[in-house]
Amino acid sequence: MPTRPIFHTNINYCGSSGLIFLKTLFFSCPGSLVEFKVSVGFSKRREDKMLGPEENEWDFGQGPLHIRGEPLRDLKSLELYAVKNPSGFADSFLCPILRHCPALKKLKLRGVTEEHTIQDAAKALGEYCHNLVDLSLPSTSTNNGEALMQMMGQIQGPGLEVISVRKLYDKAASAVSIAAITRHSSTLREIQLSDCEELQSTTLQVILVSCRALEVLRTGGEFSKLNPVSLRQAVVTEWACTRIRVLEITVAFTLDGRDPAYLTDRTMETWTEDDHDHWRMLDTFYTQIGSLTSLEVLNIKSAGNYRPSEAAVGGLITEVPFRKACLPGLLALEDALTGQLGFLSRWVGLKKLRELCGSFLWTNPEAVARIGEREVEWFVTHLPSLRRASFLAMANLGEFGSDVHFVPRTVRDLQARRPRLVLNDFM
Question: How far does Cα 43 stand from its chain's mean position?
């Protein structure tokens, strides 16, 4: 009876001989393999019960294992996970595997921690894997940002299309990051940087101004002050990502994440040169967002620290939660008669926008002071595709024993006029 070819394999293994098992398995797979996914756990047992064959095993007596010497020319997807092993994959293990994957398009690695392993793996990718378009490093190591940039810098071929990194520590030199991202700027369609530990402003800037094919950009983390793009860097050059559909970024608009003090003077008579400069940068930023007419999901968080008078005892809590921060001047319409300052009209072109979340709560003091009937009317007549917006925190909806009447009148008016629009904070 002919042997049926293996096209996919997905195996979980836990034992003291994990890497030996994984390497043996990989070099025993037939040439028909197109997808290889293995998660290897490591135990502290001195012996592994599965090291030797036993009579009751299905393959007992079938002869020695055949080790393949030829590359897997049909292998398109490779996912390797080293679980509960601080040393991760060694270069002596990883590089021989990469040499056998000339047609590889998708690579997911978890467990690349040593610097020399990163360098050797990056070199192997550049030398042997010329078709790679999807790279994922779901790692918690403190140098995964450097690993990402080194690998991107070495990869040849048509260029990466998808990058995904979890818990990114973006500590690579700016010049290295710029060169790596620019190398793939014409092909990158999706960049997912979830749960960022640290993200340099320069990295975000070069993504925005160089990645012409970009459709999805998600960046975020528990501590937003560690991964914002500065307002000045965000507006220094016109963005190239005009096709973007999903945008999630954190921006440092002000030091405290709140409205700047100069906005209290609507006449602008007391404004300094720096105040006018900041106001122009805000205008440029909001206008740039408004020009992204393909946007469907927009998540902008404002980063900042508490003012000294508001800081927690002992200074342990310094960051303003993005829900309590605001996007200065955005949620208001400019009005020459009253002197009202605002930029909301800059977003009139976002006709495909379905979801709006981030620092947009209408219960914040800045929003309460500026949002009135004109702003409600604007949201009723514009953004026709909008289905969900984070204008209310969940607590304002009566959960956790809160007072439902705390919902501002403007929110109730908007809900009455757009009943299908969900207004709760969902991010």
Answer: 32
Helices (H) and strands (E) in the chain, counts: 11, 14
Whether residue 118 contacts residue 90, with contact meaning beta carbons closer than 8 Å, is answered with no
> Which residue did the predictor score with more confidence, 272 or 306?
272
Give dist(CA 169, CA 153) in Å, integer. Answer: 17
Give the 3-state DSSP-derived string for 277-309, with helices as H, strands as E and coil as C: HHHHHHHHHHHHHHCCCCCCEEEEEECCECCHH
pLDDT digits (tens, 9 = 90+) for 269-304: 999 999 999 999 999 999 999 999 999 999 999 988
Q: What does the domain layout of the chain look like in residue ranges?
A: 1-44+68-107
Lowest mean pLDDT: which of 44-48, 339-343, 348-352, 403-407? 44-48
Burial 261-280 (b: 16+ CB within 10 A, else e): ebbeeeeeeebeeebeebbe
% the chain with pLDDT above 70: 76
- Identify which of 125-129, 208-212, 216-220 has the greatest average pLDDT: 208-212
Residue-averaged pLDDT of the chain? 82
| Separation of alpha carbons 330 and 333, rounded Å | 8
Contact 41, 84 (CB under 8 A): yes
β-bridge mates for residue 110, sequence order: 81
- The answer to whether the beta carbons of residues 334 and 345 sit under 8 Å apart is yes
Predicted pLDDT at 389:
95
pTM of the predicted protein model: 0.85
Residues 6+ apart with CB under 8 A from 16: 42, 43, 44, 45, 46, 47, 48
Residue in 326, 379, 355, 365 with CA at minimum distance from that of residue 427: 355
Give the bridge partners for 243, in sequence order.
none
Structure tokens at 253: 């608009």
How much of the chain exceeds pLDDT 90, in percent? 46
Identify the three-state secondary structure at position 258.
coil
- Greater confidence (423 vs 9) lies with 423
Across-strand partners of 40?
13, 82
At 316 the pLDDT is 52
Q: Are 189 and 215 in contact (CB under 8 A)?
A: yes
